Amino acid sequence: MARIRAETGIDEDMIDALVEGFYAKVREDDFIGPIFDARIDDWGPHLEQMKLFWSSVALSTGVYQGRPMPKHLPLPIDARHFDRWLGLFEATARELCPPVAAEHFIVRARRIAESLELGVANANGVLVGPGERYRRPETPWAPEAG
Q: Do 22 and 102 contact (CB within 8 A), yes or no?
């Protein structure tokens, strides 16, 4: 943990700023914002959990004890949603973090998105092969993402 902090400059204040900034963008996003809004009544506890999550992911602190996969499996999401999530996350990381820290977060976010997308596909009975992406049938609330 000390090595990662020294190499990247990541600390809890940076994680807090990243999580707050990222989810502010999520809430304003017309494509993925409604998915979050439909499930999160009180953003405070969610943001606190996400700060613990990113502390564990970015710094290997082990402070997050949740299980993100089961929470994502029933959601009506696919590759387009993960791409939007990643786009917002990457933009926020690059805006708020020094380049080394931003890349550290982004590499991990890409792995997380890939893992969650594969899990969601599998939960919907779809095996995604190498290089393939999971795409749900169109639903009224999920128009094509740019």
A: no
CATH homologous superfamily of 2-61+78-123: Globins (1.10.490.10)
Convert the pLDDT of each residue in 7-29 to its tens digit. 999 999 999 999 999 999 999 99
Neighbours of 86 (CB within 10 A): 16
The DSSP element (H or E) to which 81 belongs, if any, is: helix 79-96
The residue with tokens 């795409």 is 135
Residue 38: Cβ within 10 Å count: 11
- Distance between CA atoms of residues 32 and 30, nearest Å: 6
Domain-wise residue ranges, the chain: 2-61+78-123
- Structure tokens, 65: 């004890």
Is a pLDDT exceeding 50 seen at residue 142? no
- Write out pLDDT tens, residues 46-56: 999 999 999 99
User: How many residues are recorded in the chain?
Assistant: 146
pTM: 0.89
